[in-house]
Predict the structure.
Amino acid sequence: SLKILEIGSYKDCLKLGETLEKEGKLDEAFAAFDRAIALNPNYSWSYHNSGKVLQKLGKLEEAAIAYRRAIELNPKFHWSHYNLGEVLEKQGKLEEAIAACRVAIELYPNFSLYQSKLKKLQLQ
């Protein structure tokens, strides 16, 4: 983690974080994404990727916060809405999960994953 703090480019931090995430090194990946956010707090991908790792770590509240920040910065990115919906579903917040999923569908209407997730949510 000490080496991560020495990286001066948010894009390098993002690349490193993605590699670490693929290797299953989630805590280190989070540290890399966190460093990317520190270097450029207005880049939505850093928050989105941070949210993914937090979600995998079971830190749902923090993941929701990260996805919401990603959405604030880039409201048209459907994956952030969808992933937020997944987190909200796990938290038992079905109405909010359905709303997030509907936004994802609105932004990317022909993606069957989103359609099937909405149907599943509505059956709960």
About this structure: The CA atoms of residues 54 and 85 lie 14 Å apart. The chain has a mean pLDDT of 95. The chain is about 75% helix and 0% strand. Helices lie at 10-22, 26-39, 44-56, 60-73, 78-90, 94-107, 112-123.
